[in-house]
Amino acid sequence: MKQGRRVSHRVPPVEFGFSLPSRGALAKPSILVRLARKAESLGYACVTISDHVVLPTKNSAPYPYSPSGEFPGGSRQDYLEPLILMAWLLAATRRIRVGSSVLVVPYRNPVVTAKQIATLDAMSGGRVIVGCGVGWWPEEFQALAAPPFAERGAVTDEYLRLLKELWTRDEPRFSGKYYQVGDVTLYPKPVQKPHPPIWIAGHTPAALRRAGEVGDGWHPIGLRPPAGLTPADYAEKAQQVRAHAARAGRRSDAIRLTLRAPLEIWPSRRAAKRAAPAGPVLQGSPLRGPAEKVAGDIRAYRKAGVQLFVFDFTEQDPRAMVETMERFAREVQPKVTRAR
């Protein structure tokens, strides 16, 4: 009897990236390029940047990743426009991928957005990641004359389908509640096929459904109260994402599972000069502690399904940020990527 070929069940390699400071005192060209190039030289998979256009001085909605509900840094701070900043960082690097974490989809005209992202992907050789969210600030929606805040979820679902139509069809045609387009072309098409990956943010039931039905990845923020997402929580919600994908007739394993969360490796060599954290972090939480503990936390999240981590810095000091990237690459990453 002929022996059959042995089937490999190796888990795909885990990847890592960092979220860069696109707002506040560190949102400077020299700092951002330095950090992006350092991440590239260390072999990280991606860097990401966030999105706000205006910052309301009075607001009716609490910031969802702070116990106090206050937006870190307040309204009088620089906040760089993400698509323009992505172009800057893509031009300053050669291999690393650059993504939004996340682009608030209802804020911008979807046809213009499709054109901008397709151009970025074409000019960079296919290095764009499109992290997407629905937004949470009613006053910002009003200032931008965006679609109604209460309908932002439905608008996002529709705009994402429109983006795909524009990126993949030679003669796109779309008729929705919020947007209609036809008898036009949109070129260049993105280099990535069928289109740049769309990562869906959030961990609400609506976000999990959206990730499964229209996303190429799930990209929640965790370990920033009141958003927890311990490994057990993550595993449960990842199963829901994949169940939504299966119900939509998609391959349930086609959704890339990512996690954005704060990282802190102890002891910090700059502990004496430590600045205030970038945002609230759960004390005693995963991804904070000595290198061995952080490696163990990553292994736990890997078992929960995470395939790519995007880390937030917890110190607002460029030298400490570089040190964190170097220490993770040297002290933690080998412990979790070593062949088993």
What does this structure look like?
There is one protein chain. With 340 residues, this protein is an alpha/beta fold. 36% of the residues lie in helices and 15% in strands. It has helices at residues 29-41, 82-92, 110-124, 138-143, 152-168, 205-214, 231-247, 291-304, 318-337; strands at residues 15-19, 46-49, 97-104, 128-133, 174-175, 180-181, 198-200, 217-218, 256-262, 264-266, 288-290, 308-312. The strands form three sheets. An eight-stranded parallel barrel has the order 1-2-3-4-7-8-9-12, surrounded by four helices. Strands 5-6 form a two-stranded antiparallel ribbon. A two-stranded parallel ribbon has the order 10-11. Strand 3 (97-104), helix 3 and strand 4 (128-133) form a beta-alpha-beta unit. Helix 1 packs parallel to helix 9 (318-337), helix 3 (110-124) packs across helix 5 (152-168) and helix 6 (205-214) packs across helix 7. The longest helix is centred in the last third of the chain and has 20 residues, at 318-337. The protein starts with 14 loop residues before the first strand and ends with a helix.
